[in-house]
Amino acid sequence: MGRKTVLEQIDATFKAGEFTAILGPNGTGKTTLLKAMMGLVPHTGKVRAYDESGGPLSRTAYSYLCQLNKSSSELTVIEVVLLGLVHQLSWRITAAQEQQAETMLQELGLLHLATRSFAHLSGGQQQLVSLAQALIGRPEVLLLDEPTSALDLKHQVQVLELARDYTRQHQCITVAVLHDLSMAARYCDRLLLLDQGRVQREGSPNDVLNNETLSRVYQVEVDVGYCSQGHTYVTPIRLLPSAGSSKQII
Ligand SMILES: Nc1ncnc2c1ncn2[C@@H]1O[C@H](COP(=O)(O)OP(=O)(O)OP(=O)(O)O)[C@@H](O)[C@H]1O
Q1: SS3 of 76, please?
Q2: Which is more confident, 180 or 56?
Q3: Which atom of ligand 1 is closest in space to residue 194's alpha carbon?
Q4: ABC transporter domain spans which residues (predicted)?
Q5: Contact 206, 13 (CB under 8 A)
Q6: Which end of the chain has fewer CB within 10 Å, C or N?
Q7: Cβ(2) to ligand 1 under 6 A?
Q8: Which atom of ligand 1 sits closest to the CA of residue 146?
């Protein structure tokens, strides 16, 4: 990025039908990795995606949900969702495309907002509508940057279940940047833990989430446990002395 190297020696493979979370501290290169996969930042090395026959996937097969920024767009909610079909739209929006957008909104429980101004929605509602936009084109590669950052618990579960189910049903390659380690463990098949621009650990939630690795990467003493259903959860205990004062922010 400019003359600054953000990521180094990233060697990762993402498989169709797998939901992968990218984890790691702030400023460590997670968004940059998604942007490199989208071809949005200059990078050396290669990012390649293949279809079932081994041919390269076209850019139109990718969908990218960027980090939440409150938008002042004058478009209505349904217009924002239809933009997700931008590669298929012509001068006229067909009734079928409009129906597709309504179905997508219905699936996310947002149909009642269809004619509202996108700018006047809450942050969480804008995030859900943006997800509808990302999904409507049935992407084969779905890149989600903190898709649940503005959502309450119910909507976090809804979004992560939807992303997981979509990934399996459509054999999509789905990669999401997440900060909630327990949610990542609950919904993702694979975790990729980044720190200082490098992959520190990757694998199943059980492989990646352990006290030693998380304490080292986040500088926080944590307790990694298993709930009665067998899911991994991470509870923070305290900042480690090497992390500095809790009053000093970044
Ligand atoms: N447009 C930019 N120009 C220059 N440097 C940038 C730019 N965007 C990001 N960076 C730098 O690249 C590094 C990685 O940023 P990135 O946004 O990828 O981190 P991140 O892991 O996604 O962080 P967060 O969890 O805070 O969203 C940071 O040091 C950041 O300052």
Answers
A1: strand
A2: 180
A3: 21
A4: 1-221
A5: no
A6: C
A7: yes
A8: 27
| Ligand 1 pocket mutation, candidates 31, 143, 146, criterion most atoms within 8 A of CB | 31
* Closest atom, ligand 1, to C-alpha of 24: 21
Task: Kindly report, residue by residue over 121-140, the tens digit of the pLDDT.
Answer: 999 999 999 999 999 999 99
78-105 pLDDT, tens digit each: 999 999 998 776 778 889 999 999 999 9
Q: Which of 145, 112, 184 is nearest to 29 (CA)?
A: 145
Tokens 């067909």 sit on residue: 94
Amino acid identity, residue 121? L
As a whole-number percent, the residues of the chain with pLDDT over 70 amount to 94
The per-residue pLDDT for range 129-168, each reduced to its tens digit, is: 999 999 999 999 999 999 999 999 999 999 999 999 999 9
Domains of the chain, by residue range, sit at 19-203
Q: Output b/e per residue, 101-139; b: 16+ Cβ within 10 A.
A: beebbeebebeebbeeebeebeebbbbbbbbbbbbbbeb
First to last CA, the chain: 21
Q: Please, which residues have CB within 8 angstroms of residue 109's CB and are 6 or more apart in sequence?
A: 158
Mutate to test the pocket of ligand 1, among 32, 37, 179, 250 (most ligand atoms within 8 A of CB): 32
1 lines ligand 1 (CB under 6 A): yes
